[in-house]
Amino acid sequence: MTTKKNTTKSTSKSSSTKASPRRRAVKSAMYRPSDDDLIAFYRQMLLIRRFEEKAGQMYGMGLIGGFCHLYIGQEAVVTGVQTALKDGDKVISGYREHGHLLAVGADPKAVMAELTGRSGGVSQGKGGSMHMFDPARGFYGGHGIVGAQVALGTGLGFANKYRKTDNVSVAYFGDGAANQGQVYESFNMARIWNLPVIYIIENNQYAMGTSVSRSSSQVELFRRGESFNIEGKQVDGMNVLAVRGAMEEAVKICREGKGPAILEMKTYRYRGHSMSDPAKYRSKEEVKKMRAEHDPIDQVKEMILKAGVMDEAALKDVDKEMKSIISDAAAFAQECPEPELSELYTDVMA
Amino acid sequence: MAIEITMPALSPTMEEGTLATWLVKVGDTVASGDVLAEIETDKATMEVESIDDGVVAKILVEAGTDEVKVGTLIAILAEEGEDPNALDTPTKASSAPDNQGNTAEGAKAETLTEVTETAAQPKPAIVAEDVHIPDGTPMQNITVREALRDAMAEEMRLDPDVFVMGEEVAEYQGAYKVTQGLLDEFGSERVVDTPITEHGFAGLGAGAAFAGLKPVIEFMTFNFAMQAIDHIINSAAKTRYMSGGLVECPIVFRGPNGAASRVGAQHSQNYASWYANVPGLIVIAPYDAADNKGLLKAAIRNPNPVVFLENELMYGESFDVPDMEEYVVPIGKARTFREGTDVTIISYSITVGQALRAAEKLAEEGISAEVIDLRTIRPLDIDAVIESVKKTNRCVVAEEGWPQCSVASDISAQLMEQAFDWLDAPVTRVNSVDVPLPYAANLEKAAVVDADKIIAAAKAVCYEE
Description:
The complex is a heterodimer. By secondary structure, chain A is an alpha/beta fold. Chain A has a single domain, classed as Thiamin diphosphate (ThDP)-binding fold, Pyr/PP domains (Rossmann fold, 3-Layer(aba) Sandwich), CATH 3.40.50.970. In chain A, 41% of the residues lie in helices and 10% in strands. Chain A contains eleven helices and eight strands. Chain A has helices spanning 35-60, 75-82, 98-104, 108-115, 148-162, 181-192, 212-215, 240-255, 284-294, 296-307, 312-335, and strands at residues 90-93, 139-142, 169-174, 197-203, 206-207, 210-211, 232-236, 261-266. A six-stranded parallel beta sheet of chain A has the order 2-1-3-4-8-7, with helices on both faces. In chain A, strands 5-6 form a two-stranded antiparallel sheet. By secondary structure, chain B is α/β, with parallel strands linked by helices. Chain B folds into three domains: 3-96, CATH 2.40.50.100; 139-322, Thiamin diphosphate (ThDP)-binding fold, Pyr/PP domains (Rossmann fold, 3-Layer(aba) Sandwich); 333-461, Rossmann fold, CATH 3.40.50. Chain B has a seven-stranded mixed beta sheet with strand order 11-10-12-13-15-14-20, sandwiched between helices. Chain B is globular. Chain B starts with a strand and ends with a helix. The A-B interface holds A 90, 92, 121-127, 131-136, 140-145, 148, 150-160, 162, 181-182, 185-186, 188-189, 192-193, 346-350 and B 163, 189, 192, 194-195, 197, 199-213, 230-231, 234-235, 239-248, 279-280, 282, 302-304.
């Protein structure tokens, strides 16, 4: 693998020293956050982190069924992306989408209650971890078939263009989905019709247990749009400012009718693919190093402290507040009743 | 030897066409590959090229002649050294190919004629009884192809969210000319040519439907929709349920389904039972032009995903359609095409034509058959089937498609569960033979459902012969 060394300061480093200079990746400028931005990023990422930790615990206690894919480690991606969007923009994701729902503003109680299969869940308990929707906030799922959200998200962008709005759509998918054929069918159509779609490749470097270098002939996934004439950028997905900076540019391109755009977010999931994955395919040291050196939340914490926006005590209070929100959500998700049996037959057809 | 130029076929299902223009005249010298004439059908226009070098000796069919049968001798070229004036017109010059089946061409013509003839046989002017048609409504005699186009055009005029997308739907005017004229009227933003990318555009369509648009996605044939079936089932059919009713997918997937003619195994499959297995989908497979129009309009207006199964062999068939603005046929209602008392024949799509033909022949032999057209496969109007069986006490289900896990199998099971006491004989299925559809004309004919097979089954359940 030609993974570059992630640094929070660098804004101009080439992504791969092996690539020829002519094909050097172009970097976007870092986002310059206000004090409020920094606090918002911190709160958002911490909320997702605490939510996922709790979900992991509850899964271990048998309160959550089926598959459960945690987002821990990748929080900067969805936080940087979502904060660059506006009302009317549409978002779609795969099955690792708890964080995406929280980032669009869904109630953590409803998200957690969906995980426990209760009537108060975002999908009234009928969707589960992988199938959650919140169209009122522009979130269209939550799709369990790897890669399906890429074609669907392209359709969301098509609808924006059809209706002559300047809204964009965002399709999140992983490095695993990046090898599905329909991704390239979608790229092709999106370019032919200049659709306002931003493809966010959340490259957490493992498709289940298969590393990108074992699964991909072109490991620089941001280049995957080259033969469709779609510009791609590689982004330090552990740094929320880098993510937001790249998004600002991509959104601008799409709102001006010059979409689509591809952003490869180099990120890392700390946990296994799903709760049932012990992650034997990578070393404990690798994970440890990532956590120690590149944790997205720690990075923002440092910026906050450095800029004097908040002190340690205030940050601790934020953490307490998040823990309390999540603990309420967990309580709700266990107290809320299961769906009525009559719900079995509803929502099949209109 | 003189070189005979015959009316070519533009497609496997073409039987006749118009000789539009001659680009050469008698006495002209032509080289192999020179364009001699232009021919047209309701689907396409094509140039006829010379197959050899020579001199145009005779032109046997004038420009502007309609209904020139495929295989008709249209011109004769004199070869080098021959005297064009001395050539005789062969005796069988202006007739269609003989039916000896000596050549593949001849065999094809035979199969085609028969298929079309049987499909076209009874064309009741009476349209569905479940649509209110005001007295004095005039009828227009139009093809199934035109009926489908009219349905889309009318709905597009009414609702700006309706758009049509698929391969060759716009500039080419539809691979089977079903979308003819739509591009001119609605423009390229609403009539969208796609690359050959079924999985992609089915998913794109479903995503657009999530956002509230009403896509009509044309598959050139449903055989190609197998590449897209994940989106039809996992994305379109299941999303309303998975989202607890928050997201709906008002989309129509339409296109020809089932065997065409001599196109072989990969282009000849009936998917009705596949899609009918899926909760969350509506599956429609109409027979005549009125139902094709009225049900497609209903499908486009329906807030659920609809799989709309057409039949290529029926596109050119003409039927009466009420000439009224709001001709919308309710989804989920079967239709009694012919009343009878001795046996019920259940069918849908092209096989309704075979069932009607079978009923006519059975009538001649004193057996009164009731013919029911399911029209919608999901939801299935099992009540209509049961009501008929209560009257006739015998049932044959005829379906052009494989037998195992078929629509016919399901109806048989439901009748056993719900109408067992009314049955005087086992419900009998008449399906296509359980093999991939062969190419050879005789094998293909043996594989598909025809009226004779339905007749045999009907007699068997009536314990005759």
